[in-house]
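Good morning,

Both structures are done.
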Amino acid sequence: MTDNLKRLQDTEDVRWQFQALAVMDGVIKEVENPRQVILLLHGFNERGRRIFRRLLPYLPSDATIIAPNGPFPLPRQKEDRLDFGYAWYFFDKHQQKYLINQDLPKSWLKGLLQQKGLDSIPLTIIGFSQGGYLAPLLGYDLPQTEVVIGIGCEFRPHLVTSNPNFKLIAIHGGKDEIIAPQSALNDIEKLREKGIHCAWNLLPDTGHEINSQVGIVIQEILEQHGKRSL
């Protein structure tokens, strides 16, 4: 028994990688002959419907808008039911390593756009919090990406490693209690030192949230981008 326990303690965890059937839920607003696709990536323990509902009034009417749930359900016990939020990946901040990194959600989201026949239409990716961390990494893998907007997140210099072919834009609340705005700005300055341009929009009275101020800034960004694309 003691020898078995010792062998167990000396055994290291291993990881197997394989392809499996993927199933994603979410919401979509489709238009005929869309000029662009807007992909909305929700925050940790949220759902696509939440970011969809918050931003829909500020998004262009000629765009197909998709807000999927992340691949990993997180149960939330309510008084009368079991509810679920979702995650895109899992990072252990204490050990500073990924338990599950961004590769799986990137693969699934690419497959989703291909399945819908939307993989050759100009793409805007808008992510909030955890979805914002994922947004530029997905943008690198999708050549049709023109704009990436991260809300209440950081663009990590060790992940955003080269000058992207898309516009990289940050929106951050001055009262963000989850991700300090100065920390996010410090990372952007490091990107700029590497020659990677990133626009910074600070909303002094906004916290870690998607409110009307965030929506208006996004609307202005997309309108200006649309004018330059004419």
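Second structure follows.
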Amino acid sequence: MSPGQRILHLSPYITEMPKSEEKNPTIRFLAHLVSVIFHPLLISSYVIAFLLYIHPFIFSGLGKELKLYRFISVLLSSFFLPIFSIFLCWRLGFVQSMRLKTARERIIPYVIVMVFYFWLWYVYRNQGDNPPESVAFLLGSFLAVCGAWFCNIFFKISMHAIAAGGLAMFFLLFSFRDPYASGLYLSAAILAGGMICTARMLISDHRPADIYAGVLVGLAAEWIGWLFTI
């Protein structure tokens, strides 16, 4: 058998090896778990919870009841209400599934999320006692959804990657402003972003370009939100 015939003979096995790795149940389970834990609509709640309860002084002027009220308002406006609205779109037949597999299905949900995120940022900006860092993050989150909606016209950009990019950029900018910065929060944000993008590479139907574009949109959105607020 000639070398060329050996290559042709072995090619089916060579092409099937990555597929078998991708179908590893443990890897797929972990990738799905990361995708659920770091769902794009949950990232805003995580960041605000960090600023409220973990950082030593950002929201130090608020009492426990006010902190809880602020967190619940963010959780409702950035996660529960958008998810419930998308659920209604699914039950009414505007989208085929809650997973929004096609770019066309994402048009209406993006508009819904934009409305909720704009309202959340607008309320936080006008309350007066919210620190500018939180307002800047929420503005960046709204701009990220706007960027996702615009890119969705041309290709199915990764929402998870946008959230990962925004998370990393916020903590990068925040670390330069925070006198208590140690690099731990930024490292955790970058690690989480890497896990999110890797998980989407493994289990989603996105192309690598969709992931990279999402990260860039998230980075740019948070940077613009920071510039217009701080």
